[in-house]
TrEMBL record:
Example of a GO MF term: DNA binding
HTH marR-type domain sequence ranges: 10-144
Protein name listed in UniProt: DNA-binding transcriptional regulator, MarR family
Source species, domain of life: Bacteria
Source organism of this protein record: Micromonospora saelicesensis
InterPro entries, per database record: HTH_MarR-typ (IPR000835), MarR/SlyA-like (IPR039422), WH-like_DNA-bd_sf (IPR036388), WH_DNA-bd_sf (IPR036390)
Annotated keywords: DNA-binding
UniProt xrefs under SUPFAM superfamilies: Winged helix' DNA-binding domain
Any one biological process term the GO annotation gives: response to stress
Matching SMART domains: HTH_MARR
Pfam families: MarR_2 (PF12802)
Length: 158
C-alpha cells in the first residue's frame, strides 16, 4: 500500500481549509469593525442567520444552532445588549417571546454579504478567477448536499 506524500500529509488538508476559512472570517470582521460593527463576532453571524427574517424563540434558536437553550439565551442577551437582536411578544402566543433581528442586525448581515463579495474578488485577483471558481466547484463536489448548516457552533462545541 502506498504511503501518503510526506510533503502533503492527510491532516494538512482540513487544517488548510480551516486556515482559509479563518482568514476570510478574520478579514470580514476587520472590515465589519471599520464599517461600524466592531461588536460582531464569528458566532454572531450564525446566530443572526438562524434567527431568520421571521424571528424565533430561544429554544428553536438553540436547536437550529445545535447548542443548548441556555447557551443560545446567553448569546441572544449579548446581541440584544449591543442592538443586533430584540425580544418581542409573539403575536400568536402571548406566553412566548420572539427573538428578532433589528435594523442594526440586518445592516450587519447586509454588510457581511458585501464584504464577502469583495473578499472573494480579492482571492480571485490573487489566485485567478478560474482557480477560485474551480476551488468552489471542487468543495461543492466534496461537501455534503446540505453544506450550508447553521449548527456549526454546536458541532464545534461538541
Amino acid at each position: 500500500m502506498a504511503t501518503a506524500d510526506p510533503a502533503r500529509p492527510g491532516f494538512a488538508l482540513p487544517l488548510l481549509l480551516l486556515a482559509g476559512f479563518r482568514t476570510l472570517i478574520d478579514d470580514l470582521h476587520t472590515e465589519l469593525a471599520r464599517e461600524g460593527h466592531p461588536e460582531l463576532r464569528p458566532l454572531h453571524g450564525f446566530v443572526l442567520q438562524a434567527v431568520g427574517a421571521d424571528g424565533t424563540t430561544a429554544t428553536e434558536l438553540g436547536q437550529r444552532l445545535g447548542i443548548s437553550k441556555q447557551a443560545a439565551g446567553k448569546t441572544v442577551d449579548r446581541l440584544v445588549a449591543v442592538g443586533y437582536l430584540e425580544r418581542v411578544d409573539d403575536p400568536s402566543d402571548a406566553r412566548r417571546r420572539l427573538i428578532r433581528v433589528t435594523p442594526r442586525g440586518a445592516d450587519g448581515l447586509r454588510r457581511s454579504a458585501e464584504i464577502f463579495d469583495r473578499l472573494r474578488a480579492q482571492w480571485a485577483d490573487t489566485l485567478g478567477p478560474e482557480r477560485v471558481t474551480a476551488l468552489e466547484d471542487d468543495l461543492r463536489a466534496m461537501a455534503s448536499a446540505n453544506w450550508f448548516r447553521l449548527d456549526v457552533p454546536g458541532w464545534f462545541g461538541g
